[in-house]
Amino acid sequence: MKWIEATEQNCPIAQSLAIFGDRWTLLIIRNAFVGMTRFEHFQKNLGLTRHVLAERLSRLVEQGIFEKQAYIDRQQRYEYVLTAKGRELKPILMEMVKWGSKWTDADQPDLVELKVI
């Protein structure tokens, strides 16, 4: 089965993976929960290319996970703010923190509870 066929299945897991099941998207969402909103902050923290970050943020806006809010009008600069739909991902991320702390070599994070911005 090809990936595109999997994402078109009538399955909540497959449809969810079509939105945030790639290498960077959940890390972008995680960073939003700890207070990041600006493109340059996401890029500096994650170290991904501008092109990849722009594509992921665009998809998250399109899917209603983030909304773009202008913070400088004349230069078209935007902040990416979690919507209600995006904030509902918090329990999923918290369970991933618990699972990862238990079953991987990752250290327990200092910030165990994610903010809701």
From TrEMBL:
The record, for Pfam families, names: HxlR
Q: So which domain of life are we looking at?
A: Bacteria
Keywords attached to this Swiss-Prot or TrEMBL record, sorted alphabetically, are: DNA-binding, Transcription, Transcription regulation
Q: Ligase: present as a keyword of the record?
A: no
Q: Which GO terms describe its molecular function?
A: DNA binding
Write down the InterPro entries for this protein, in alphabetical order.
Answer: HTH_HxlR, WH-like_DNA-bd_sf, WH_DNA-bd_sf
- Name the PANTHER family for this protein: TRANSCRIPTIONAL REGULATOR, MARR FAMILY (PTHR33204), TRANSCRIPTIONAL REGULATORY PROTEIN (PTHR33204:SF36)
Name of the protein this chain belongs to? Helix-turn-helix transcriptional regulator
Source organism per entry reads Acinetobacter lanii
